[in-house]
Design a protein that fits this description.
With 175 residues, the protein is mostly helical. The protein is built from 5 helices and 4 strands. The chain has one domain. The strands form 2 sheets. A two-stranded antiparallel ribbon has the order 1-2. A two-stranded antiparallel sheet has the order 3-4. A hairpin with a 2-residue loop joins β3 and β4.
């Protein structure tokens, strides 16, 4: 810094005070903007969470409820050890590996991206190598030899409706 600048600044004390006041005003404005930015960032995070709940969590919960024999929350936590659910570019839910690549299943003679449906969820569970764990978590697919749902192996009997028993009115006291 040259000596001329020091002498010029020393000669103008009013200018120095004006600059300090302007600096304080700018710092106050910056604090307000940072607070506003933090508020908007929080609102953005809340909006993203709500959108995720609508676009991903809702459809995933419905699909898991179709196949899970246990609470969907328990099934989902076990399933998400191997795969994750994400909103796809087309608006549909995509099932991905943790590295972000699409989870694939075998259909016929080629591998295709798994979709969010009961059959594909079952196929992905079988592909994890933890079949025993998922067998305990998956609902039986209700296939009998003909594809008809079973009734548990028992025979259904129609019971005759019971006639109401005739009751005598209670008598109190002497007859």
């Amino acid at each position: 810094m040259s000596t001329e600048n020091v002498e010029t600044n020393a000669q103008e004390p009013g200018e120095l005070e004006r600059l300090r006041a302007h600096n304080a005003e700018l710092l106050g404005d910056m604090k307000k903007l940072r607070a506003k930015l933090a508020t908007q960032a929080t609102e953005l995070d809340e909006a993203k969470a709500a959108l995720h709940a609508i676009r991903v969590d809702g459809p995933v919960g419905e699909a898991i409820a179709e196949v899970a024999a246990v609470s969907p929350r328990i099934f989902r936590s076990e399933f998400e050890r191997h795969y994750k659910f994400a909103a796809g570019d087309d608006g549909k839910v995509a099932i991905q590996k943790h590295d972000g690549t699409p989870a694939t299943i075998q259909r016929g003679d080629k591998r295709v991206a798994a979709m969010l449906n009961a059959a594909d969820l079952r196929a992905l569970c079988a592909a994890t190598g933890e079949a025993a764990t998922f067998d305990a978590l998956l609902r039986a697919d209700n296939k009998a030899g003909s594809g008809a749902p079973t009734n548990g192996g028992g025979h259904m009997r129609q019971s005759k409706p019971q006639e109401p028993a005739q009751t005598q009115p209670a008598s109190f006291g002497l007859r």
